[in-house]
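To illustrate the input format used throughout this study, we show a single complete record. The first block contains the structure-token representation of the backbone; no residue identities are included at this stage. The design step must infer an amino acid for every position from geometry alone.
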């Protein structure tokens, strides 16, 4: 596709520039300025908003696209819920995660030392599974959100019983609300003498959280990451909410997911990928951002090699020539050729966008001099 700067598009649509930028923000563009570069495709959509019927030639599209949403999601198999733990500093997020992680290791046949991979799955005695995400780097989270990805199905909002609602509690609430992700409240540290559960509840209610005890539908669970008290109830609440949300995905077809983390380890370039649709297996060809890869192996959080990663699970993927970025979408390609073409095409798009941005910058500087 061709590219156009916001400034030039505003000119073409005959809208005053500062008003145009403001209207783009209202249309849902984040971090937009007059220097921002839009693809022809996006520009055409914007032009339509202004009542134009644009004809754009977006060229031969060699990109890889996600599949269209399923026609009848209710007929798909259930998948494990993906859960993110959020809350104020020191309220016990890591302690809760560690507790859950340990219980997941113990329940794994091979056991062993865990390694932090940004996500892990807990196998419950009922045979059900829950996938927890470590509170990921904000940047990656934001990138995924901007691309409309709801990586997480629900948020566990951790509030310390001895400290109650604090600024980052409200921050987390804001995030969950804007992403339209339902929450479960975990009142933590209830083992402490200074715990005051009722105060937490009324503080939450005062901040618009419609908790069950007050007639709402937000579940509240009292837990202790230290003693393990209430942890089974927390898992139970997660499953209850999952059932209500009816979380399903295709296990077949071209897989889709998101890069949660990416790093270079002695064993090679490794990315933790959360699979959202389809199933990834060794030998599959995938593209993440501008990087193509043939999956060499998949490992779970205990570093055990697995044959497949079905939807709702996170795995480490080995086999990258270059590390992908956290926040990149992962798409499976039907073959190596398609994967490489798409990666190459994206690289070219980026270079062209950079050239145009550079050109726009030079134009601006020139105008300023004149
Ligand atoms: P940040 O990552 O810094 O935001 O903190 P966090 O939310 O991950 O809290 P963390 O798990 O590190 O816990 C903070 C402190 O509270 C640690 O000293 C924990 O040992 C303690 N703590 C966490 N959970 C409990 C609990 O259930 N009971 C008691 N008594 N202490 C807890
Ligand atoms: Mg922590």
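Output of the design step:
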């Amino acid at each position: 596709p061709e590219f156009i700067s916001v400034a030039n598009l505003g000119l073409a649509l005959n809208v005053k520039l500062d008003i145009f930028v403001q209207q783009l923000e209202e249309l849902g563009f984040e971090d937009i300025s007059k220097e921002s570069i839009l693809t022809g495709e996006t520009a055409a959509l914007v032009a339509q908003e202004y009542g134009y019927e644009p004809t754009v030639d977006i060229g031969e599209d060699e990109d890889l696209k996600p599949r269209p949403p399923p026609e009848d999601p209710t007929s798909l198999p259930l998948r494990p819920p993906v859960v993110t733990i959020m809350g104020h500093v020191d309220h016990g997020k890591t302690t809760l995660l560690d507790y859950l992680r340990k219980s997941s290791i113990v329940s794994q046949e091979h056991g062993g030392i865990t390694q932090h991979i940004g996500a892990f799955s807990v196998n419950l005695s009922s045979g059900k599974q829950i996938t927890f995400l470590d509170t990921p780097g904000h940047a990656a989270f934001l990138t995924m959100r901007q691309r409309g990805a709801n990586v997480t199905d629900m948020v566990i909002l951790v509030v310390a019983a001895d400290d109650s609602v604090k600024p980052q509690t409200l921050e987390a609430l804001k995030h969950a609300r804007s992403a339209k992700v339902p929450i479960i409240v975990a009142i933590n540290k209830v083992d402490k003498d200074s715990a005051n559960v009722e105060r937490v509840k009324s503080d939450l209610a005062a901040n618009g959280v419609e908790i069950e005890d007050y007639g709402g539908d937000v579940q509240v669970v009292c837990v202790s990451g230290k003693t393990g008290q209430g942890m089974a109830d927390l898992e139970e609440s997660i499953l209850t909410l999952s059932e209500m949300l009816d979380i399903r995905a295709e296990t077949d077809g071209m897989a889709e997911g998101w890069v949660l983390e990416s790093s270079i380890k002695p064993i090679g370039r490794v990315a933790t990928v959360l699979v959202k649709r389809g199933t990834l297996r060794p030998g599959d060809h995938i593209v993440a951002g501008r990087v193509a890869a043939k999956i060499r192996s998949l490992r779970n959080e205990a570093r055990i090699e697995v044959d497949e990663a079905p939807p709702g699970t996170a795995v480490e993927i080995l086999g990258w020539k270059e590390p992908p970025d956290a926040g990149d979408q992962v798409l499976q390609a039907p073959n190596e050729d398609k994967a490489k073409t798409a990666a190459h095409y994206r690289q070219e798009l980026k270079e062209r966008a950079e050239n145009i941005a550079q050109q726009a910058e030079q134009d601006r500087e020139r105008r300023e001099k004149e």
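Structural context for interpreting the output: The pocket of guanosine-5'-triphosphate (ligand 1) is lined by residues 87, 89-95, 188-189, 191-192, 224-226 (CB under 6 Å). The radius of gyration is 23 Å.
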